Amino acid sequence: MTMKTTIIPEDQKIEIKEEIKRKPTIGVYALTSCYGCQLKIATVSKIIEIADSVDIESFYMLSSASSMHKKVDIAFVEGSVSTKKDLEELLEIRKNSKTLVGVGACALQGGVQSWNHGDKNYKDLFENVYGKSKIEISEAIEAKPIEEYVKVDFRLPGCPPEEEEIIYFISTFLFGSWPEEKDYPVCQECRFAGNICLLIEKNEPCLGSITTAGCNARCISYNVPCIGCRGPVPNDVAWFDSLAKVFVEKGFTEEYIRERMKIFGSHHPKLEELLTKVFGGEKK
Amino acid sequence: MTTIKFTQPITVDHIARIEGKAGIEVQIKDKKEVEVKVNIFEGPRLFESIVIGKSVEEATAVFPRVCSFCAAAHKITGLLAAENAIGLQVSEQTAKIRELMYIGDMIESHALHLFLLALPDFLGYPDGISMGKDHPSIIKTALQLKDLGAIIQTITGSRYIHQENALMGGFGKIPTKTKLNEVVNLLRNSKDISTVALEQFVKYELWEEVSSERIHLALEPKNNIYGIIGEKIKATDGTSFNANEYRENIEERVVPHSFAKHSSYRGKRFTTGALSRITLFSSLLNDKGKELYQNYNNFINPNNPLSNNIAQAIELSYFIDRAEEITLEILDNYKEESRIKPTFKEGTGYAVTEAPRGLLAYMISVNKEGKVRKADIITPTAMFLAQKEVDLKIMTESLVKKGIDNPSEISQKLETIVRSYDPCVSCSVHVTKLGR
Which residues of B are less than 8 Å from A37 in CB distance? Predict the structure, then answer.
């Protein structure tokens, strides 16, 4: 057997070598949020080691050497788009990044600020807070996940994300690979954690069965029913309808069920469709 | 004397190393008339609007999302207001565990602010990471103290950002004795590094140019022990009011350059924060706290915002002692308790506490089913914004008078003043509301 060798032209060879030698550049940015994802990234215990293996180009919360206009290999973006200025910045970040990672509930699901999405008129909500006074600095718009405006390459969920997941994401990029999304619910980890089922056995409004795993069912281990902060399970397997049926059997009202599912799920395209199967007709 | 030539306003589009998004805009007319605006463009999240009609238990889970730096402060203050609304009295042990969690937040927030956000300005670095390359022991201390605060919040609240374990009526699960004993050990092992921040900041003189008279507001702590829980707010002008009267005493107004409103106390601008606490209640510190306060008294000028760094640094040391005391008290009377599930009835509740950055006020009104009818929150950053703008104006005027004409030099100084307040921009914006 003979081995086939491909001859790489000299100029291309150099380019590959430099690409490998160079540390990946990273930017950490925030739109409208609580800054918790950035705080979590900034305080992961290995941050100093990680900082040595990457070039952090921008990290507004930590460094005054930050800029939206620098090119980066990987951009981590937290926050929802809630003003025109947020949108301009998001577009600028997308333009300047090879890979964009949406981080946390605000970027991925619109955040708790989207709790009323689909229920109440944004203008009314805004005027309830600011009155008719004019704020000239930027125009406020209804909170939306960043995916409504730009392509998101990877999703790092959580409110805030888990430390080990942040390290996993950064590590895969350093190895030249990419992170895999968790596509199974909190219940799976909850069984492994050895918890009793708060929904079935304690009649608590636990959202574990429709919520993306990755937290090792922390809250349930503390006897606190899941509030859904990691967002609905991806790939259209968040069965809002089945869970709503069990909630009804447990005595919860339609209004309460919808409100609880909407804290972190209001922008989910299937939420209303699936709830309609249970409650019928138009929502009350 | 150098002539000042500003062809365009000095602007800092986005102040780094603070929580949230804000900028500074300085206009200088005729080389003397100075106008300064702190532009707040962090987007609104309308917390007080979105919780209306929702179950109050869910609302108290959402409130900490106002801000990650002071999530525990928002969680506990929201819980206290909600419990006051329905007349729910928690156990003494619950109150103590909450106070411990709150102090954990204070330690973490002060450590992050002092070492990673404020100190790089004084040592001349753009950030803590590059500062750490030359000063590894400072960064090591910073992370150790930050972790200490985070661990306290994690064992009490289940995690250090958005503590779901703290609920109306108590906790899902109370911390075990083993965990509490671990906390005691950690606190004892942190005592020798508790004043590192203070030792750093007192190497630098306060900029006298930024001093001007101001009113301070702080919560009178319960049991005469310097702390964060209380019922009555005192002011340095000799006046005072009760927590449930805060809406009649603190007013807010909308300004065009900010999504955060500006507040006033009985018509006057004021400030709040560690410097206010220490100015009003230094006599309630423990012996070591009092000693630090006396030793570094030259650096504590109530009229100089830069003193807030010093006040926070003294508090950092004090709260480590206080956390140990409370943990030992919890261990001495440890009871296996489950939380009291709330029974709802119509009512309105108020709570005011001392968050890391100053007074935090909540009002929650619920109907008989436990749904929120009305909510009102005023955060420390919204309270001191107006005073902060005045400080920046005074500083700019005095620099211009001295003939300093380098915009980057001026803006660097202004940013340092902004950081000394430890502003929490997310907080100030997310909860602003219309005047009553």
Answer: 68
